Amino acid sequence: MASGSYATALPFLEQALQMARETSVPEKEACACMLDLAYLYKNQGKLKSAETTCLSGLALQQKVYHPNHPYVAHTLRILSEIYRKQAKYPQAANALERALTIIRDVSRADDLELAPFKVDMARLFVAQGKYAHAESYYKEALEIIETNYGPEHFYTTKVLVSMAELYVRQGRYSETESLITRILPIQERVFGPDHSLLVPVWLIASRIHQAKGDLKTTKTFLEKSLEAVENHTVSDYLIESDIRIRWGEFYRSCNECQKAEEAFQKALQILQSAENAHAGRIATALNNLAKIYIDQGRFSKAQPLCRKALDMLESVFEQNHPSMLDVLETLAQLHHEKGDTAEATKLKQRIEEIRMQQRETYAPVATAME
Fold first, then answer.
1. Where residue 70 sits, what CATH number does that domain have?
2. Given 3, 8, 29, 176, which is the most exposed site by the fewest CB atoms within 10 A?
3. Are 202 and 221 contacting, i.e. CB atoms less than 8 angstroms apart?
4. How many domains are contained in the chain?
5. How high is the mean pLDDT in each 10-residue block of the chain (370 residues)?
6. Whether the Cβ atoms of residue 43 and residue 1 lie closer than 8 Å to each other
């Protein structure tokens, strides 16, 4: 699992759990097998199986130890991540808050033990569009991690990757590039220069170079990422769909509409065939496909895709969530192109309300961090 060879690890874990069930091993051993399997399912993107297995392992763990044992807190972290990846944000927040309550009772505010919980809280804030709160938690966690492990440690770089993902969402490309320049050499030394576990970093790097207009380097990073998928070294359908969406964005920027459409369609196919479709990513793929059709003047094909993308996001997020912005902007463009000025104006007002809310939310937290 540590090297990303999830398919190779799976039969060992399944065999271990089967043996634990068929023999008289202590329940602690069976619990460990179950939770390891849940963690593996999570890493493979098999989120429904991960959730079911993790909940079973958690119930057994609480029986073997007690509901407020530190081991339970770490299992709740895994459960929270599973929920977060399924866009079940209330359940993710509840699990993580329970975990933090447990771990704070046995830790000091600056303990290394607290750092991963702070990182998870930051990731949850990012998913919910609360970027200033997320940055605050990342910085708190990094201060603890760098003090204990040092700035060149692999664990430090893992957290920096998450912070880079936050910055690139905000269009803060200069800060993102500084982080990637620091991260990539360290992770290459750990995994080797062509390992599939570098894909998340390559995708961030591709966005930086595309923003700079360096399409040749952008394509190089995307080719490396796609090669990792096609060699079956990456088994996470979410990562594969992200790669296909990035290819689509790249082709659109190069005015290669047919290739862009094919990439977005492939991303949709991957996501919709998964055992637990991820609404946010499906909406992103639908919205990007709609952009292609708008570029081509095929408005009747674009509109239902935009509406479906917006409906999906509104079923997951609150009314003025930042994740709505891209879809709303696409819809506004569509109505403008069709000459429906009134509807385009209404959508632009909603877009401005979301942006204003983001600025108001960011200001007090940013001031507190200075």
1. 1.25.40.10
2. 8
3. yes
4. 1
5. 85 94 90 95 87 96 94 96 86 94 86 92 88 94 94 94 94 95 94 89 96 96 90 69 94 94 93 73 91 94 94 81 88 93 93 78 41
6. yes
